[in-house]
Amino acid sequence: MRICFCDDEPAMRQLLEQMVRRWAQQTGTACELSCCASAEQMLFENQENFAFDLILLDIQMERMDGIQLAKTIRQRDQRVLIAFLTAVREHVFEGYEVQAVRYLLKPLQEEKLFELLQLAADRAREQRPYLILGPEGERRKVYLDALLSVEAQGHYLLLDTTGGKLEQKGSLGALLQRLDGSFVQTHRSFVVNLQHVVRITRTDCTLDNGSAVPVSRSAYRGLNEAFIRFYRQGIL
User: What is the pTM of this model?
Assistant: First the structure.
């Protein structure tokens, strides 16, 4: 689970890191915690999107406060869970428009934080499956149903998504192990998402964005059978 905590107090960041570590050990959950000292730092380090399962924001920070930061986040990401940390109870009523899931009061109680972390972990398991792609510092969350195709080019993968093309270092075999049954290999260097396939021939298949992906002779039969199984309910 990926968590981001934004607070301008070093002692608070250190305390939360210790608590998250204890919760992860107790529950056996793999956690990756990113801490930011300001709203400006968080926005600078996450310019494309917010590839986290939970974002916890201190409300009272210098310059841009937590409420303003949450509004900026919501302009780019409507799904990520946002919670607030505050020393003032009156702030509790300010987060409805950003769909905050919880408000934790300072001093932070470990029990309350653990409840929030469990909520985020449960939600992460229930939501649409996704991949976290990109190098450290530039990671992006890509939902599997938004991934159209993947092409292997040497030691890199070129991923065609509904939001544009991405490049990721890795192998096609390793990626296939992380994909679900919607994905089928059409060629030794290509994989397609059946959700986006609209036409198949013996030489290529056409995706719903108009692009074409090559189909090898050895892969055609398996691809065609997988396509039929996938859309069996809609076949006349």
Answer: 0.60
